[in-house]
Amino acid sequence: xxxxxxxxxxxxxxxxxxxxxxxxxxxxxxxxxxxxxxxxxxxxxxxxxxxxxxxxxxxxxxxxxxxxxxxxxxxxxxxxxxxxxxxxxxxxxxxxxxxxxxxxxxxxxxxxxxxxxxxxxxxxxxxxxxxxxxxxxxxxxxxxxxxxxxxxxxxxxxxxxxxxxxxxxxxxxxxxxxxxxxxxxxxxxxxxxxxxxxxxxxxxxxxxxxxxxxxxxxxxxxxxxxxxxxxxxxxxxxxxxxxxxxxxxxxxxxxxxxxxxxxxxxxxxxxxxxxxxxxxxxxxxxxxxxxxxxxxxxxxxxxxxxxxxxxxxxxxxxxxxxxxxxxxxxxxxxxxxxxxxxxxxxxxxxxxxxxxx
Length: 357
Known about the structure:
Layout: H1 4-7, H2 22-34, H3 37-44, H4 48-61, E1 67-70, E2 73-76, H5 78-103, E3 110-116, H6 118-135, E4 139-145, E5 159-162, E6 172-185, H7 187-193, H8 199-205, E7 208-211, H9 218-225, E8 234-238, H10 241-249, E9 255-258, H11 261-265, E10 269-270, E11 277-285, H12 293-305, H13 321-327, H14 333-336, H15 346-356
Parallel strand pairs: 3-4, 3-5, 7-8
Antiparallel strand pairs: 1-2, 5-11, 6-9, 6-10, 6-11
Helix pairs in contact: 2-3, 2-4, 2-5, 3-4
């Protein structure tokens, strides 16, 4: 069997006679897709300088210019567009190869990757994944908690849980629950500012905490209901759910949270002011991934973790936070989250609500 170099084909196209720099091609693909070295660096978790060197190495090796650099990002040359098409096919082939190897792994061992929105991942899934890992000690669980949606087709994750329905026909998409969201306030805030009495009272006399990030409706709610400028009204603006929860819990202002938050990490006081909404929770994965035993087990576990029959805060119908503990019949949640939060008994919260009124 002869190499391209030994037969003389494409002489001088590249020194080695073979495509031996897939990592550089993968980086070039990411830069082209995101439109800049900075955005690609954030996505890949690498430095922009490193990415530039890899792309320059690729261009030097193949004696061509793939990208032109501009103040607002990069643009593909004609040669770059031609390479993109071939590189995309290589990427798809590499994904299929990885899936094939994974399907042939006999034991329930190896790595499984779950991508999920930051709030659900931090406050709901992460503490419970301990149970999954103990049942399957041979698995390494890679949990990615981010506000942006993971690209399952490009193997950023084996399984993804998100609040926006993907629009990709080649993926398996399952609605596994519903997230109910309403405004909450902490006792610490009420002691200083008093109990909010309604939308008009909030606009005139109170402060709010705003979550402005992908897959949330914080900005949409603000534009719809605030009717005033942020300065002097918004006490804090957050881009992740964990900071949003802690800001509200510590009394920075009124904020919208999932109804399950006070159940696991109170005390929080729900505000019945007529502004609440719900968001469907979507599970996505590649159909071939379910043929891999470890991924299939993760899919089953994730669906169970959002089962509304067990966890009433994920039901289709709204259950008021004050009624959630009455509807919940399984393990005590205070045990599930021991060491993570300090929970106050609901009766104490209700007593504080009565005093505040």
